[in-house]
Amino acid sequence: MSATDSTAVRCTGIRKHFGEDEARVEVLRGVDYTVRRGELSFLVGPSGCGKTTLISVIAGLLATDAGQVHLFGRDLAGMPNDERILFRRTHLGFVFQQYNLLQALTAAENAAIPLLAAGVRRREAVDRATALLERLGLSGKTGSFPRQLSGGQQQRVALARALVHEPRLIICDEPTAALDHATGEAVMELLASAAVHPDRAVIVVTHDNRVFHFADVIAQMDDGRIVGVDPRRRSGPVPETVSPTPPSPLSA
Length: 252
Known about the structure:
Blueprint: E1 7-18, E2 25-36, E3 40-44, H1 51-58, E4 66-71, E5 74-75, H2 81-91, E6 92-95, H3 107-111, H4 113-117, H5 122-135, H6 151-163, E7 169-173, H7 181-195, E8 201-205, E9 217-222, E10 225-231
Parallel strand pairs: 3-8, 3-9, 6-7, 7-8
Antiparallel strand pairs: 1-2, 1-4, 4-5, 9-10
C-alpha cells in the first residue's frame, strides 16, 4: 500500500467466533470494510450483528480468526507487541459504550490520560483536557469525579479522552446514546469536524437515526457481514476542523 493511499482502514475477510463446539458462535463472517481518510463512517445494524466486535478488531482489542486489518497502511496484527501498543496509544482514540473512566480521577484527569501516557507534563495535559471538556459543555464539571457525573456527562468525558491527543483514527461505540438531542448534535459536530482532517478518520457505531445526517458513509451490518454501503454527502453542520492543541505531523 503506497504512502499516498487515501485509505485509513481496510478490513479484508475478517472472521471472528466466540465459544467452541455447540456453544460456538460465528460473530464476523468474512467482513470487508473500508474507511477513507477525511471520512466519517457510520456502522449501523441490529443489536448482535457484530458491530462492536468489528470495531474491537479494528482497534486491536480482539484478535481475528482470519482476515487482515490495515490502519493507514500498517498491519496491526503483524507488529511486535510493543510496537502495536505504541501505535494504538498514538494513533487511536476509542470511546467505549461503558465509558471506562477511572473513579479516583477527576473528569479533567481522566480526559488527560492519553497525553500523560505520551509524556506530556501533567499541568499542560490537564489544561488541554480541560479546554476540550469546556468545548463539550462540561466547564463546571472538570474537577468532578465520575460518580458525581450523569451518564451523559461521563460519555462526554470519555469522548474528550478519545480526542485530546489528536489520534488519526477515532472509534466511537454509541457516542450519543445517553445524550439529549441538542447535546448529541454538539458531540456529532465535534466528531464531524475531526473527520474533516485529511489524515484522520472517524468510525461511529450507532442506532441513533437522529444523527445519520452527519455521516459521509453508512455501512449496514447484519449477521456478521457488511450487507450494504450508502455513500452520502454529509448534510450536518460542520465547524472548523477540531484541533484541541496545535497539530503535529504524524508518520504513517
